[in-house]
Each structure stands twice: as C-alpha cells, then as structure tokens.
Design goal:
heterodimer; A: 239 residues; alpha/beta; Elongation Factor Tu (Ef-tu), domain 3; Rossmann fold; 2 domains; 7-stranded mixed sheet; 3-stranded antiparallel sheet; B: 316 residues; TIM Barrel; 8-stranded parallel β-barrel; 4-stranded antiparallel sheet; 9 helices; globular
Amino acid sequence: MYALHMRSFYFASTIQPGQFINIKVQSGFYPLLRRPFSVAQTQDDVITILFDIVGEGTRILSLKKPGDMVDVLGPLGRPFTLPQSDTVPLLVAGGLGMAPMPILTKWLKANGFKNTETFLGARSKDYLVDYQLENVHYATDDGSQGYHGTVVSLLDQWFTDNRGTEVTVYACGPNPMLRGLQNLLQGRSLKGQVSLECVMACGIGICQGCPVESVNSTKRYRLVCNDGPVFDIHSVVIQ
Amino acid sequence: MTKVQTDFKLGSMHCRNRVWVASGTFGYGDECLDLVDVNKIGAIVTKSLSLKPRDGNPPPRVVETPSGMINSIGLANIGVDRFLEEKAPFLQSLDTSVVVNIAAGSVEEYREVLERIESTDCCDAYEINVSCPNVKEGGLSFGTNVRMTAEITRELRPLTGKPLIVKLTPNITSVSEFARAVQDEGADAVSLINTLVGMSVDVRTRRPKISTTTGGLSGPAIRPVALAKVYETIRSVSIPVIGIGGITSANDALEFLITGAEAVEIGTANYLNPNVAVEIAEGITTFCQENDIRNVSEIIGTLQTDQTISVVKSWM
C-alpha cells in the first residue's frame, strides 16, 4: 500500500470526507486520462491518498519522489453527510475501500461523534490497511486476523450483539461486499451511505462516462462523479 | 505586440475565435463555470440533443486506450424540452457563440428538435450529428448512408437561416463523397471527424471493456486520421470545414488550420483540462504574434505541398 502526501493548503482546507481528487499522474498523453482517488486524510496543508499498484496510473504515482509536482483537479463529488444525532457511526470498509475512512473518522469526532466503530475486511491480514482508523473490528476471508469471514458477516454479528443501538452506516469497498451490505441493511431496515468507485474520463460531469443505475428515480442513471461518489446505499443498483 | 484578429464569421454566426468545444465533451456549458472562462471559447457545441431524454448506455461506458479512449455513452441527454427550460437561458446569457448539436433516430425527430429550438432563438448555429456510433437507430446508420445524410440535410435546410453544420463520420470509405452530398443540399459547413469505431478486451475476464463491445475511439490517437480526412474533404468541397479529432494543443490546432479547416473543435482534451480550449486559442494568438500574422485567417489553407520537407527537426 502506498500513501502519497501532497502539499496544498487549498485542497487541505476545502476537501470534505468522501470527496475525491482527479490526478494527472504525469504530463503528456500516457496515461491519457486523470485517475480518481478518495482523499484519505488532511492535516494542516497536506492531503493524503492511499493506493495499491493496480495499473499504469498507480505504478507511475508510486514512483513519485519528495518535491515532485502532480496536477490535481478537485475537490470533486458529493461528500458524506453527518449522522443523525444520538446514533453510532459505523464505518464499514473492504480492502482499500478504507481510503476515505480516516478523514471521515476525524470529521465525525470533530462533530461530536466520539464513539465510532470501524469494520475492516480483507482477503487476509496482509491486505488489512488500518491507517489512521480507530476502534477497528477486523475480518479476513482466510481467518488470518480477526473474524474468519466477510466484514458483512462480522457486522451482522455486531448488530445481533448490540440490539437497540441506533447506528448510521458509512461504507466503501468492492462491489460484492457492498451488495452484501446493502442486503444486510435492507433486512434490518437500516440506512447507510456508500462511496462508489467507477472508471471515469472527466470526473466533473461533462463526459457522462460513469453512470450508476438508480432505484426509484425518474432518471435511470446517475453519475458517480457528480451525483456521487457518496450515495444513499439503497438508492443505487450495485453491479 | 502585434494585435491579432481572431474572430470570424460562419454565415450569420460570429465567433470570437476558431477554437470550439466539441459536442459531448463540455456538457451544456454550465458544468465548468468555476474552471473555465467560457466567454473565451470560440463556440460551445452542446451535448447532442434528442426529442425525448435518453438514459444512455449501461456501464462501463469509457475505457482508456493508447493515447486515446473509447466511449459508448449512447447520447445520454436531457431532451429538448428540459434543455430549453433549464439550459438555454444560461447559454443565451453567455458572450460566446452557441451551436446546438442534434442527434435523432428519424428524419422526423431531427426536424422536430430543430423546429423547437429554432422557435426560441437560443443558439447561433446547428450541428447535425449523423455520425454517433453508439446508438442502434439513427446515428451511424444515417451517417454511413450518403443518401440518408443528404436527405436529412435537405429536410432541415429550409427550417433555419442559421448555419447548418453536418458532423461527419470517418467510418466510411470516402468522407468527401458525404461532404459533397451535404454541400449540394445546402449545408453551410461540415465538421469532422466523429469518433472511429474501436474495441478493447479485458483478457482476464475475456470480456469487452465497454458494455456495447465496440464504441467510439477519440483522443490524440486519431489525430493523424482526422487531419487526413479533413485534408481530403477540403480538396473536394467549397463550404467551410471544421476540424475535429485528437486536438490537444495550439500546435495540433494549427495543423488543422494550415490544412484548411476554418475552425477546430476540442473534444477529449477537455477531460484532461477543462480550460484547454481557452489555452489553445491563446496559443494560436501567440503563434501569430511570433510570426507577425495579423489575422488568423492568413494561416488557413496555407499548406505547402509543392516540396518535400527534408528534415523535420521537432521529431528529435
């Protein structure tokens, strides 16, 4: 996992939890398009993104050295919104879906939500990234750390053990995990906010390239970049 | 510093400069307000409008390819009624020219959309999209049929006194044949090229990388193809040609102007830098100042073909 720290007072002072930035990883036309990243944390005049090398864009970013400049467009997208008062915020993340959770944790605390619970799942302990997370409950598919099973099953168990606790769920992760979470919350009539990932060309709503199918809406599709990336988890069809 | 004249007229439309933003790559102009001084753009060509709103194609709609991208948006748009209600007043308030792009599934639909827009006088010109590769009906099936392309032009021509620009596809054998056909039917200009049909496969899943399997290739990858098509067209018609295809810089734009394009449209490059059209327009002015050119029109069609250039230094 890589953490890239970028110095920008503007971004550090304007970005809200759940928003993203769109990075041109190097000048020229390879890669051609910008790459979208959730902002993981802000501190003073520094913003941080977290990523793994999954393709050429992230490979190039991983080679950046202190003092290098990057071309960043942002802040973009709709952020998370505050929980209802008197509820416990539950942060649920799979793999690097934890990326927006550190800044969300800090913001919730600053707004008086002292008791957040974080549920973090991954394939195995090698893939668990708990960078600046608090009160973490771990789940691994292979049982190498924490609960042996999915993070959604772990959360289900927590709900059973904590009946009566009013919660607000925040989620980010791979789509199969988010679908499982959607079903779990539906079954328990709970609300949630989800941050979605999508291939994007522009990140600002002009190319219409990042649709997500919507539920109960006059519009069949909404755009992950502009209408999201944070959505009511029950308002979208997660494919 | 030399004062450079950048404006020009296309029929009744007056443009501040020759750098436009291409349809579908700049929304309806209001999305980029905090990023771009839209009044410095030569013209805004709107996202294609159809009679009814269109949802567009399922995801994934875009994929990056070498020096380019393939898209299959499927003409997602808000439809002409909402456009007139929500977008037209804003566009009219701008101090820049507005070209409404129309895409339709039938000759009737083209006519109806144009008539509704014409009745409000909210634009300066029309660009007729007969060349979208990503919708089943209309689109490319019109644009690859010279008889249909001519018929659409013939039907629309009497409906407006404003410039009628027909946007042509490169996915045919001879683009100049199509350009001549629409010129004969009274089109004021042609714009080209729309995207090239392209495809990309994920070898891990063995699935196409976009939902419709094939889509439209754009970006720097297609620029030499676009320039050759523009060159071919310019030699065969007398109406203005607007060059489109992979333009990312003033240098790229100048290639098209020198070849004979009256103006250029910037597409995919807007996604990398929404302000790029303004920067390209400024770059063209700088080029003129450096070369003591008083009017950008002096550049247009100045391509020298009578001698072979022995050394192109810039490739090193």
